[in-house]
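chain below, 206 aa
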Amino acid sequence: MSSRTMLGKASAIVGAAAALTIAASGIAAASTTISPAAATPVTATSSGLSFVTTGGLELYCTSVSGSGTTPAAPGNVNSGTGGININIASVGLSGCDLEGVPATITTSGSWALNVNADSGSPMGSIKIPNGGAHVVAGSCVIDVTASTAGPVPYNNTTHTVTANNTGTVNFTSNGGSASCPAAGAGTAKMTGALKFNSTPGITVTP
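prediction:
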């Protein structure tokens, strides 16, 4: 075997080993840390949140609020992928209307903000539990089923996750009025910013 052939095989082995090292490093880098741990209280607020259905109908709320805590250590660190959930309880949506028709929204279950730094940058997804919201606007009745809006960027400076016509919010409708989505299952996109207020503010890092 010529020295050139041996060198080529050696280079191939070194190259394969380097590729494995890079791949392993990439896997190891997928992690998330929330700081500080067990921050209480954490208040989530929004000055406006809208849900637009695939048919172009808009449900808009002028105010959104909720409260929760970041997980206590070691739950504030995930060394793998998938991020960490910050549970949001007592979610309230007020000043709402569906295509101009006043709407009342009753929420239930634990909503959550899932934050992750799997890509190296902080991201957030708003998770709504099955049956998480019951909407009544005149004769129109809508029930939100299990949904995730995101992931979208989470800003470590403003402590805000912002959705812009993002995600898939699933719902069922009774189709009870002209301003109501058609009866049956449907989807909507979410737009709005959810700010997490605490002292100090919540940061999300790899």
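The helical segments are 3-29. The chain has one helix and 15 strands.
thats it, cya
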